């Protein structure tokens, strides 16, 4: 838990960030758009050292949940309700950081109307959180700002290894992969049936699609952010899964570093996190992280937003605290011997359903 | 001032303080605000231009900008960045329009990481480069900060020249024709020319007098340093002395033989010889402390400085006792009971303490036995002044060891008392970042060590041995074995 000094610094940072976002939201459609994004980038850069100390000290005992792999929380859709159910501390890995990096590398993409709309949504959502929910939710740059060269390299190497093992081969680079495989059909033939089924790219609905259709669907939905006009099929495929696998490794590395639990709503990101978790079954420190991440994902799936439509957020938070929802759920799971290694999703859902009625 | 250093005798010694000749002469004159921390941030913007274009072209371009600035805004009294940023929006844009016609905009982009779009939209629009990583811009910022940090470098003098140049435009400084001539020569003369040795100091002193005419913008300067220091990483350097081979085991074995010989002599020849006991006791204490250095490899440690200080103090005390033994009835017993008296003082206080002392490193029960060992404590006085009423410094002078005291003991005392000189030398790492004003930070990972005490330990210990030799005649073959290490 943070001491008074760090808590004060955190509040100051959130307040300063709010000021910057308020000024920037009015300038998004102007020609100064890139400067606005750059200012956010500079702001987080200038605060990175104190933020690192905050991140290192904020979590004790695996009780800090971080929203990751999301483009924004979505207060208007009441997404903050399920988010705060488990854990004591709730962070958001600032989604705006991704756009600052893209803006720098490829300003053309950022000027795209669809992307601008996403950025606008994210900024407005952040403003809402900082104005109204700052007692419950904190926004900080986690994956982007604190990925040093070493951890990025580690994630990239691990991703190459994983892809290699999927194909029972050895790839040291994208060139190795594209030299071996040319078309989606080649790739599909090289993968096992279970692997082809397991890999999803857009969302859960991919499970109903054929391998080739899944890929085409992804490319169509993401043509703004993932322009691949001159790329071969092999290159497109590789980049697609590499980004997801690498993202999963970075999430795992950051959460392990700071003892955070990744709160992941996005089915695809979650599925890749599960794929890579199977490699970490022997590491004690990671077990509660993965297990609680699964629990929070399942809680999100079963959470009925109809039930909170007339409840005030502060009252909801009080209900969670007074019922001791987190403690009751995890004590119950422990009693029934349900954990990372045994039990299964259905049992977890049973326990969650049993306790969740008490917080509405 | 150059490299001149005043001698000790040049100082004015008053009430325990040595006052420097400079401070003595200028005690009521206020000190100017330092270039690095309080003036340079205002002029750094021109530094980026000099850095990119080099001296010749950079000075030319800055000259053009400054002339434009003064012509259009003669209310701007000096080329300070805080004044430029305070100009109204339209005026700033006009200025920046002109600047980008003279220089490439990206040159000032590092400044835009401090003066960002939210608060300085005009500056940011012209000079911010979002496609360049913040790390790169920050790195450039530090490079230029470093280049113009030191107040007497040639580069900084170039920057000061621009300040002086502006004052010529404003007519602020009245100067004789000869000085004006020097100013005109400055930009067209290479730094390596002999003539510049005259011109540079003139420029610097002119800038110094100019800064006294302007009020410094404290908020601007504080914000500058607050932002850039928090944003920048430390670049730490420390000092580590390498491990050396001393053949120390042999030395202490030979020392042990000598002390052993003398101890056996004491036991065999005159077991009740108190003088010899005191001398050997002090010698053994110094020897044991040196053994600790060898056994635990403490040559380069902080602890070892305590040891050498003790060895020196023992040596001075031995010399002192020997010199004055004839003047006193029994200086040896007096010395012992002086020490026991100090132990008794601690013991007496411990009895009055309300705290649980059972875990203390001070074995009060044992102290009780030692204090009362030969005489009941009710007969032992506690003298809290210096033994012989002379401090260690006076004793050192008394026995002709002033230099040993002044050059070694006094230095080691800083370590024993945890004074800042010792802390700075042993426990702090230097940061090479100009953004941190070259501050120091704690060496909590224990990466640094200190220069070895071994040589001084050996030479001082050998001096003690030779003192004993002068009284008791140590066999030569034993003496030779320690002398060869001196």
Describe this entry's structure for a reader:
The complex is a heterodimer of chains A (360) and B (486). With 360 residues, chain A is mainly alpha-helical. Chain A has a domain at 1-61 and 93-134. Helix content of chain A is 62%, strand content 4%. Chain A has helices at 4-25, 33-58, 80-83, 96-105, 107-110, 113-132, 149-166, 174-180, 184-190, 193-198, 211-221, 233-258, 267-277, 286-302, 313-323, 325-335, 345-356; strands spanning 64-67, 89-93, 137-140, 261-263. In chain A, strand 1 (64-67), helix 3 and strand 2 form a beta-alpha-beta unit. In chain A, helix 16 runs antiparallel to helix 17. Chain A is globular, with a radius of gyration of 21 Å. Chain B is mainly alpha-helical. Chain B folds into 2 domains: 35-232, no CATH class; 248-483, no CATH class. Chain B contains 20 helices and 5 strands. Chain B has helices at 21-25, 35-72, 81-86, 89-102, 121-127, 134-147, 154-170, 177-185, 196-211, 218-231, 248-269, 274-295, 303-324, 331-352, 364-371, 392-398, 402-416, 420-427, 454-472, 476-483, and strands at residues 12-14, 17-19, 236-237, 428-431, 440-442. In chain B, a hairpin with a 2-residue loop joins strand 1 (12-14) and strand 2. In chain B, helix 2 packs parallel to helix 7. The A-B interface holds A 19-20, 23-24, 32, 34-39, 41-43, 45-47, 49-50, 103-105, 107 and B 113, 116-118, 121, 124-125, 128, 130-135, 138, 227, 230-231, 233.
How is the topology of this model organized?
The complex is a heterodimer of chains A (360) and B (486).
Chain A: H1 4-25, H2 33-58, E1 64-67, H3 80-83, E2 89-93, H4 96-105, H5 107-110, H6 113-132, E3 137-140, H7 149-166, H8 174-180, H9 184-190, H10 193-198, H11 211-221, H12 233-258, E4 261-263, H13 267-277, H14 286-302, H15 313-323, H16 325-335, H17 345-356
Chain B: E1 12-14, E2 17-19, H1 21-25, H2 35-72, H3 81-86, H4 89-102, H5 121-127, H6 134-147, H7 154-170, H8 177-185, H9 196-211, H10 218-231, E3 236-237, H11 248-269, H12 274-295, H13 303-324, H14 331-352, H15 364-371, H16 392-398, H17 402-416, H18 420-427, E4 428-431, E5 440-442, H19 454-472, H20 476-483
Antiparallel strand pairs in B: 1-2, 3-4, 4-5
């Amino acid at each position: 838990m943070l001491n008074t000094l760090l808590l004060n610094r955190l509040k100051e940072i959130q307040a300063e960030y709010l000021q910057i976002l308020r000024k920037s939201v009015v300038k998004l459609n102007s020609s100064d758009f890139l400067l606005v994004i750059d200012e956010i980038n500079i702001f987080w850069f200038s605060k990175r050292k104190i933020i690192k100390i905050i991140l290192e000290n904020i979590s004790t005992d695996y009780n800090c949940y971080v929203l990751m792999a999301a483009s924004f929380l979505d207060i208007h859709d009441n997404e903050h309700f399920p988010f705060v159910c488990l854990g004591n501390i709730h962070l958001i890995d600032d989604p705006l950081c991704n756009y600052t990096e893209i803006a720098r590398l490829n300003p053309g993409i950022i000027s795209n109307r669809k992307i601008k709309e996403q950025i606008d949504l994210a900024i407005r959502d952040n403003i809402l959180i900082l104005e109204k929910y700052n007692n419950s939710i904190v926004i900080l740059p986690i994956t982007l700002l604190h990925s040093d060269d070493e951890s990025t390299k580690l994630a990239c190497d691990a991703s190459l290894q994983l892809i290699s093992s999927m194909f029972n081969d050895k790839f040291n680079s994208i060139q190795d992969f594209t030299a071996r495989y040319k078309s989606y059909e080649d790739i599909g033939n090289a993968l096992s049936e279970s692997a082809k089924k397991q890999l999803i790219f857009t969302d859960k609905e991919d499970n109903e699609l054929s391998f080739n259709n899944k890929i085409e669907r992804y490319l169509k939905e993401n043509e703004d952010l993932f322009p691949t006009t001159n790329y071969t099929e092999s290159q497109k495929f590789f980049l697609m899964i590499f980004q997801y696998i690498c993202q999963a490794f970075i999430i795992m590395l950051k959460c392990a570093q700071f003892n955070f639990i990744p709160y992941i709503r996005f089915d695809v990101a979650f599925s890749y996190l599960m794929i890579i978790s199977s490699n970490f079954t022997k590491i004690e420190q990671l077990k509660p992280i993965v297990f609680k991440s699964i629990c929070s994902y399942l809680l999100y799936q079963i959470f009925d937003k109809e039930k909170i439509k007339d409840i005030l957020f502060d009252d909801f938070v009080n209900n969670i605290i007074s019922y001791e929802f987190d403690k009751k759920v995890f004590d119950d799971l422990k009693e029934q011997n349900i954990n990372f290694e045994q039990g299964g999703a259905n049992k977890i859902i049973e326990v969650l359903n049993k306790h969740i009625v008490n917080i509405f | 001032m150059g490299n001149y250093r005043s001698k000790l005798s040049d100082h004015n010694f008053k009430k325990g303080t040595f006052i420097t000749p400079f401070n003595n002469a200028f005690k009521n004159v206020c000190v100017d605000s330092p270039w690095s921390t309080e003036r340079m941030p205002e002029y750094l913007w021109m530094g980026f231009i000099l850095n990119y274009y080099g001296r010749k072209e950079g000075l030319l371009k800055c000259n053009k900008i400054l002339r434009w600035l003064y012509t259009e805004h003669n209310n701007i009294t000096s080329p300070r960045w805080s004044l430029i940023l305070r100009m109204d929006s339209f005026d700033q844009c006009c200025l920046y329009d002109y600047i980008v016609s003279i220089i490439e905009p990206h040159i000032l982009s590092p400044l835009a990481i401090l003066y960002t779009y939210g608060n300085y939209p005009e500056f940011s629009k012209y000079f911010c480069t979002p496609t360049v990583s913040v790390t790169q811009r920050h790195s450039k910022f530090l490079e230029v900060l470093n280049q113009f940090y030191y107040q007497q470098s040639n580069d900084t003098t170039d920057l000061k020249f621009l300040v002086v140049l502006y004052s010529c435009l404003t007519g602020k400084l009245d100067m004789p024709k000869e000085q004006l001539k020097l100013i005109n020569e400055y930009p067209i003369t290479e730094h390596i020319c002999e003539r510049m040795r005259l011109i540079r100091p003139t420029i610097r002193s002119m800038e110094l007098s100019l800064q006294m005419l302007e009020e410094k913008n404290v908020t601007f300067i504080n914000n500058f340093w607050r932002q850039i220091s928090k944003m920048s990483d430390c670049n730490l350097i420390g000092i580590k002395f390498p491990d050396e081979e001393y053949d120390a085991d042999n030395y202490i074995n030979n020392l042990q033989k000598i002390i052993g010989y003398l101890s056996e002599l004491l036991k065999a020849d005159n077991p009740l010889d108190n003088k010899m006991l005191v001398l050997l006791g002090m010698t053994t204490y110094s020897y044991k402390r040196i053994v600790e250095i060898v056994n635990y490899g403490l040559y380069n440690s902080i602890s070892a400085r305590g040891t050498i200080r003790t060895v020196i103090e023992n040596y001075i005390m031995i010399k002192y006792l020997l010199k004055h033994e004839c003047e006193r009835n029994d200086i040896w017993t007096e010395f012992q009971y002086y020490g026991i008296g100090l132990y008794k003082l601690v013991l007496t206080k411990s009895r009055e303490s309300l705290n649980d002392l059972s875990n203390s490193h001070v074995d009060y029960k044992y102290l009780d036995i030692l204090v009362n060992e030969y005489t009941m404590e009710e007969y032992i006085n506690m003298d809290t002044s210096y033994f012989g009423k002379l401090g260690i410094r006076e004793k050192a002078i008394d026995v002709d060891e002033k230099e040993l005291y002044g050059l070694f003991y006094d230095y080691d005392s800083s370590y024993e008392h945890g004074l800042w000189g010792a802390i700075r030398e042993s426990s702090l790492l230097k940061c090479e970042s100009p953004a941190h004003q070259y501050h120091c930070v704690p060496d909590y990972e224990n990466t640094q060590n200190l220069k070895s005490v071994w040589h001084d330990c050996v030479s001082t210990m050998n001096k003690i041995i030779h003192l004993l030799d002068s009284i008791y005649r140590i066999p030569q073959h034993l003496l030779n074995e320690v002398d060869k290490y001196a």
